[in-house]
Amino acid sequence: TQLLEQSPQFLSIQEGENLTVYCNSSSVFSSLQWYRQEPGEGPVLLVTVVTGGEVKKLKRLTFQFGDARKDSSLHITAAQPGDTGLYLCAGFNAGKSTFGDGTTLTVKP
Amino acid sequence: DAGVIQSPRHEVTEMGQEVTLRCKPISGHNSLFWYRQTMMRGLELLIYFNNNVPIDDSGMPEDRFSAKMPNASFSTLKIQPSEPRDSAVYFCASRNRRVDEQFFGPGTRLTVL
Question: Which of A48, B7, B44, B93 could, after both became Cys, cross-link B102 (CB 3.0–4.6 A)?
């Protein structure tokens, strides 16, 4: 069974602060996705990382895939209230994804 | 471009009743996934199909759960009989097998009383 552990589980910060969310596993994945989910909606894809050590930037969000393709991080710079939501990482192998339990982020104005 | 469509969005039923959830994947996507999300267990994969064929149903909790995909544009997840512990949000997602990303529908919030 492939497990993905996300930390922290909950994060509450003030607008303008920086934060990092971690996604760790003992399994190697062919790719890893990050999703954001808002209440009452389905998860929405943010990014896919494929290559070990890969870094992708999406405006104020920076995603990194570990060199061994077992872990990933999401860094948000100058968080805004609109960043509030549940952030999920998902490791992809053999046609299906394994999801972490998620990090619930609250950004207070 | 329509995304994944699920119906109903909300379902409230009584224990013992049959529940049928419906999903229309994104056109051209040839993999379809059914997930269940709860606070306690997070997002769990129930079953997935490739080209309308069930590939992995190891996540289906019990024989009360069944899923079908009669054609490339429609799938159902049925619970018979339903129980209160089945209350959750059920998501359908689809994927083009040439890429790894899945696209989720808005979910069906099921409440079994």
Answer: B93
Residue B106: its chain A contacts at CB < 8 A? 40-42
Distance CA A104, CA A84 (A): 8
Tokens of B35: 């997930």
B74 in Cβ contact with B20 (< 8 Å):
no
Residues 6+ apart with CB under 8 A from A49: A31, A32, A33, A56, A63, A64, A65, A72
Contact list in A for residue B2 (CB cut-off 8 A) is: none
CB burial readout B3-23, b (16+ within 10 A) else e: ebebeeeebebeeeeebebbb
Alpha-carbon Rg for chain A in angstroms: 13
Among A58-67, B26-35, B54-63, which stretch is predicted with the lowest mean pLDDT? B54-63
C-alpha closest to that of A91 among A101, A81, A105: A101
pLDDT tens per residue across span A81-107 = 999 999 999 999 888 899 999 999 999
